Automatic annotation (TrEMBL):
Keywords: ATP-binding, Nucleotide-binding, Transport
Domain ABC transporter: 3-206
Domain of life according to the entry: Bacteria
Name of protein: ATP-binding cassette domain-containing protein
Family matches, as SUPFAM superfamilies: P-loop containing nucleoside triphosphate hydrolases
Any Pfam family hit: ABC_tran
PANTHER family reported in the protein's UniProt record: SPERMIDINE/PUTRESCINE IMPORT ATP-BINDING PROTEIN POTA (PTHR42781), SPERMIDINE_PUTRESCINE IMPORT ATP-BINDING PROTEIN POTA (PTHR42781:SF4)
Length: 206
């Protein structure tokens, strides 16, 4: 299993009831999990806990054989090697697409940058700045940057919510193909059951 969560416990200070209690989850390498559920059910919080952005969760989290947290340890976010794709793309506006992709890499590598540009169908657009790209291209550039860091797990929070509906079907297909080619273990949050139907191998209702 690429991801193992055992007996997760989590509650925000302001809450009476825990958001997670005795929660378990397993995901095999290369599989795509869709997380669905009503507003406020804890979807984004689950991603934040896995990424190490919430440090008060109980239980065990292991990714790629590494323990992110257990009773004794808590690995900080920067040591977890998690790829996070937000709905607002989070590209650096003052860096070109190539520079954005290079930013995530441990060692700058021209060849790998070119490969990622090709994989995300951005050949020839490497020298552009994010504002010179369409929404779908920005989304793919953000994915290329995230993949450049070779994450052990890819987390996406509502990856399609800022895209025009006309683009969503293409983007779903692109994303699926890219994730499959890279054999990326992926968790994504969505409100849209169609996203889950097209993209996911596994579903989780929170
Ligand atoms: N920093 C915080 N402090 C206290 N409560 C919080 C905090 N962040 C989120 N919450 C609460 O925790 C619950 C889960 O929030 P979360 O953002 O994980 O939900 P979600 O399922 O992603 O919702 P949505 O579908 O609306 O994005 C909500 O009730 C929210 O109000």
């Amino acid at each position: 299993m690429q991801l193992r969560i055992k007996d997760l416990q989590f509650k925000f200070k302001t809450m009476d009831k825990p958001l997670f209690q005795g929660f378990d989850l397993e995901l095999a390498e290369g599989k795509i999990l869709a997380v669905l559920g009503q507003s406020g059910s804890g979807k984004s919080t689950l991603l934040r806990i896995i990424a190490g952005l919430e440090d008060r969760a109980g239980g065990t989290i292991q990714v790629g054989g590494r323990t992110f947290q257990d009773r004794r340890r808590f690995l900080p976010v920067e040591k977890r090697n998690i790829g996070f794709l937000f709905q607002d793309y989070a590209l650096f506006p003052f860096l070109t697409v190539e520079q954005n992709i290079g930013f995530g890499m441990k060692r700058k590598d021209r060849k790998r940058t070119e490969e990622l540009l090709e994989l995300t169908r951005l050949e020839g657009l490497g020298k552009r700045y994010p504002h010179q790209l369409s929404g779908g291209q920005q989304q793919r550039a953000a994915l290329a940057r995230t993949l450049g860091a070779e994450p052990a797990l890819l987390l996406m929070d509502e990856p399609f919510s800022n895209l025009d509906t006309a683009l969503v079907a293409d983007m779903r297909r692109d994303l699926k193909e890219i994730i499959r080619k890279k054999n990326m273990t992926t968790i994504f949050v969505t409100h849209n059951r169609e996203d889950a139907e097209v993209l996911a191998d596994q579903w989780l209702e929170l």
